[in-house]
Amino acid sequence: MHSRTLFPASLALGLAAAQQGSSSNETVLGVYIFSRHGDRTSKSTPPTTITDLGYAQVFSSGSYFRSRYIASNATNPIANISPDLFKNSQLTASAPLDDVLFPSTIGFLQGLYPPVGSDLGSQKLRNGSTIESPLNGYQLIPVATVASGTGSENQAWLQGSSNCANAISSSNDYYFSPEYLSLLSSTGTFYTNLTPVINSTFTDSQISFKNAYSIFDYINVAEIHNATIPSSDLLDEATLLQIRTLSDTHEYNLAFNASSPVRAITGSVLAAQILQALNATVVSSGKTTPLNIQFGAYGGMQSLFGQLALPQQNPDFYGVPDYATTLTFELFTTAAVNTASVAAEQASFPADEDLQVRFLFHNGTTNSSSPPVTYPLFGGSAESVSWMDFVKGISAFAVSDQGEWCRACGNSTGVCAAYAPASSPNSSAPAASAGGSSSSSGGVSKAVAGVIGAMVTLAVVLGLQALILLVAGLRVVSKKRGGSSGVGIPAGEK
């Protein structure tokens, strides 16, 4: 069991040199941000909703990323991004349609593109009159929405919405592992001693390591919001840390296991989305949606942590991320770029070999005094990797098409029937390789094309939505004010 999983401030201070993760001669070309929701009510007392504190947290994070990527005086401006008025062609946002993740996305976007005032937020009509946008120029930013069914936010089972048979089976295997059984036994007295604190919600049979996350979540919410807590004297600092640490161990082992890759299926789907989004920027030479924002559950984060070998960089990555935590992938270059013409001339966009990707992480609310920290990917030591190495590394575990998902999950009915062994003799064929030399072709190298080819084909023929809806058991919900319906990581465990 890992001794501490709180991503302490001292760690961030110790890595201050890596916080900015950039230099003055860099140009940011594309960004993918995956965020957890803000503070919410307990999952043990449904309906679960975002709180005012949670709203403030995600707004703060959105404001920080505005100062980093968007504002006219941004520290790391995305090439040609509109600094004040939102442009639909430059930003894509998505979230499950529920009472926590969806409003968290709205709050984040309010900080990212705040009201613009009467000067920019007004329109002159043909009759000569001027109409000012309500709420001092409030900007309406479309959010692609998905829904995973009634009460999804109230689930306590991490694989509850994956619909992936082998992933569910793999996570269930943890409950029969020597590590789990040992902890279940050794922590019995610890949890029993918490009974006076939680017995209004949990029965005696539920008070054990088996429900480590639900118990942590219940107590954590009470510690934040409740004026009084029954038998609060039992909750000293050491006990609270132990409650959190046991929850971290429980959840990480449900989300990732190196010997059973399918357990991290949500991370695999998220990885494919990240690759597709950044590649769209490369393919279009910076013309297509350079900024992608998605809100989702911590389970997908933990799966991706394991797949990216982040716990090898710091054991704190074994922990459950705090509210408003963000994972950011920056596509950038140190080559000379004429930012005035990137959107107009393909020739001004850097070659594949001049592109790099950086990963930044911040546990909890992000702001100027607590910015994200850069961490090496794939077990390496460099603060960034080449675009080609990023593609190769991500593709090693990304689930990029429907057939691949069906085979990995062992599902053979419904939309997976076509990929069942009896009707698909080649179902055991390996996925496309990321190998090959870099050679530019319409903004994407041949090696990259080989890796993402299946994903692009799926997007054209069926739409990537089909894959995500299959993985998450979701339905598409219409998006207001234009734009197509989008996809997201399943709500699941939040």
Write the layout of secondary structure elements.
Elements lengths: L8 H6 L1 H4 L7 E9 L16 H19 L20 E6 L4 H12 L4 H4 L1 E3 L5 E3 L1 H4 L6 E4 L17 H9 L4 H9 L1 H5 L2 H4 L13 H14 L11 H19 L9 H19 L7 E5 L2 H10 L18 E8 L21 E8 L10 E2 L9 E3 H9 L6 H8 L30 E2 L2 E2 H16 L2 H9 L2 E3 L17
Parallel strand pairs: 1-6, 2-5, 2-6
Antiparallel strand pairs: 1-7, 3-4, 5-13, 7-8, 8-9, 8-10, 11-12
Helix pairs in contact: 3-4, 11-12, 13-14, 13-17, 15-17
Fold and architecture overview:
The chain has 494 residues and is α+β, with helices and mostly antiparallel strands. Helices cover 36% and strands 12% of the residues. The chain has 18 helices and 13 strands. It has helices at residues 9-14, 16-19, 52-70, 101-112, 117-120, 134-137, 165-173, 178-186, 188-192, 195-198, 212-225, 237-255, 265-283, 298-307, 387-395, 402-409, 446-461, 464-472, and strands at residues 27-35, 91-96, 122-124, 130-132, 144-147, 291-295, 326-333, 355-362, 373-374, 384-386, 440-441, 444-445, 475-477. The strands form three sheets. Strands 1, 2, 5, 6, 7, 8, 9, 10 and 13 form a nine-stranded mixed β-sheet that branches. A hairpin with a 2-residue loop joins strand 11 and strand 12 (444-445). Helix 3 crosses helix 4, helix 13 (265-283) crosses helix 17 (446-461) and helix 15 (387-395) packs across helix 17 (446-461). Mean pLDDT is 81; it is low at 1-18, 147-154, 341-347, 423-447 and 452-492.
